[in-house]
Automatic annotation (TrEMBL):
GO biological process entries: box H/ACA snoRNP assembly
Family of the protein in this entry: Belongs to the SHQ1 family.
Record organism: Dacryopinax primogenitus (strain DJM 731) (Brown rot fungus)
Domain of life the protein comes from: Eukaryota
Lineage start: Eukaryota, Fungi, Dikarya, Basidiomycota, Agaricomycotina
Record's signal peptide: none
Segments forming domain CS: 1-89
Cross-referenced InterPro entries: CS_dom, HSP20-like_chaperone, Shq1, SHQ1-like_CS, Shq1_C
Region (Disordered), start-end ranges: 425-449
Gene Ontology annotations for the cellular component aspect, listed alphabetically: cytoplasm; nucleoplasm
Molecular function via GO: unfolded protein binding
Name recorded for this polypeptide: SHQ1-domain-containing protein
């Protein structure tokens, strides 16, 4: 069965669902309305939507099909007239199953469960959400408890979002992916081994001379930082999703994520390097992605390189340190001031909540998909993040994270490289050269008559 393109809107009394179902027989349409659930089935299309509040079929409800356009418009009465339904533009959330069950024993799985004990499950979800918000507010720098690390005898190790993926790098040496430094071992290395190798490669790539050169000759850096916000038009309020973006959400695999508060917290932190890397590329290309943009985004995002979420004991500070280290070791422009500017942009994106973060992920996805082998990172990270943002994230938590990211103090010492010493040495050298030039000019002055 195919999932049709659709949009939802509302007035005071009803919800209107517009579906694109060309070349159907209107007499074969089956519609079921039950509580918050709306299901339509007409060969070859099937769609189930879960609204935030109940709808009913009554005399005011209707279903009209226009064979010339292929659109069907279904009008469903609200059970409570005048109630405003939230997030009707979040198609991923509308298509998500209405109930979940708590994850036990910290085993993150993807699973669709039955609808038994619906009220208890809804109550658990609300309790988990409230717990998560309370725990995370102003608390991003406190490390969570260290998780139990299960022993595994598997010859392969999954990776990506919640470690749900594998098989993307079995013949990595045959591709032009310059970010994957593990080669075919990407499928066999454990999370810890991939992370250690990534950090070791950062040390190899760190170039003090490159850093000093960009520090001393910073004209381009200043021009980059002087531009208007790179995503001003994209994130202009009200933020709306395009038809193409909605179609992507409809076509993504239908998965339900069972999350503990610890896992959800880690997903919030892990998204920071992804937003940071996208903001870096947008700033340095003046919002005009180049043929190198997919590489830039991929190589700067530690989750893409390591194929892991950030470590379970990660804090917001350590997440930011990983962003700065990679931005100072790999791309063309390596500047502390630029890192600080990118941090500000990432915080602004987070302030836009789920819709702003979602728009940036769509941008990231498009750049990666145009980047040949780097499209693999869109599959193992961005696609799932798009669904998570709509289904599980909250505007309040993104705002809290933005505030903490803006206020966080990060020192050059935290990076692990002698940045301050290099800058001071370069300034002293520049001052010495300036003094030498002044002395030479004085010697060249004509003698007084």
């Amino acid at each position: 069965m195919l999932t049709p393109r659709f949009t939802c809107s509302q007035d005071d009394d009803a919800v209107i669902v517009s579906l694109y179902v060309p070349s159907i027989r209107a007499t074969e349409v089956s519609i079921l309305v039950e509580g918050t659930s709306f299901t339509i089935n007409v060969n070859p299309y099937f769609l189930r939507i879960n609204f935030p509040s109940p709808v009913v079929e009554d005399d005011a409800s209707s279903a009209l099909y226009d064979p010339s356009s292929g659109y069907m418009t279904v009008k469903l009465a609200k059970a409570v007239k005048g109630e405003q339904f939230q997030d009707l533009d979040m198609l991923g959330k509308l298509m998500a199953p209405s109930t979940s069950s708590p994850a036990t024993n910290r085993k993150p799985m993807i699973e669709v469960l039955d609808g038994d004990d619906e009220e208890a499950k809804k109550a658990w979800l609300m309790q988990e959400r409230d717990t998560l918000l309370d725990a995370e507010k102003h608390n991003w720098n406190l490390p969570p408890p260290l998780p139990d690390t299960p022993f595994s005898t598997s010859l392969t190790h999954p990776y990506g979002f919640l470690n749900l993926h594998s098989g993307y790098f079995p013949r990595a040496t045959d591709t032009e992916n310059e970010v994957n430094t593990y080669g075919e071992d990407a499928e066999r290395l454990s999370e810890g081994e991939r992370w250690e190798k990534m950090r070791a490669h950062e040390e190899e790539k760190w170039d003090p001379e490159h850093y000093i050169a960009d520090f001393m000759d910073d004209a381009m850096i200043r021009e980059i930082l002087a531009q208007d916000a790179p995503f001003f038009d994209l994130l202009h309020e009200p933020i709306t999703f395009t038809d193409d973006e909605n179609l992507i959400m409809i076509q993504l695999p239908q998965r339900e994520f069972l999350l503990t508060p610890e896992l959800n917290r880690n997903l919030y932190l892990t998204i920071v390097p992804i937003l940071f890397s996208t903001a870096y590329d947008a700033l340095t290309t003046f919002s005009e992605p180049t043929s190198q943009s997919a590489w830039t985004i991929s190589v700067l995002a530690a989750p893409f390189v390591s194929l892991n979420s950030l470590p379970a004991n990660c804090t917001l500070l350590s997440a930011l340190v990983s962003c700065y280290r990679r931005a100072l070791a790999y791309p063309l422009y390596r500047s502390w001031a630029l890192c600080e500017g990118v941090r500000r942009e990432a915080a602004q994106i987070l302030r836009k909540g789920r819709r702003g973060v979602g728009k940036l992920l769509f941008w990231t996805r498009a750049v990666l998909d145009a980047g040949g082998p780097y499209a693999a990172y869109a599959r193992v990270w961005v696609d799932d993040y798009l669904r998570w943002v709509q289904m599980h994230a909250s505007d309040e938590t993104f705002l809290s994270l933005a505030d903490e990211l803006s206020a966080l103090h990060i020192s050059k010492v935290d990076i692990g490289w002698p940045l301050q010493e290099l800058e001071e040495a370069a300034q002293e050298m520049q001052q010495g050269d300036s003094d030498d030039e002044s002395d030479q000019q004085e010697h060249m002055l004509p003698a007084p008559l």
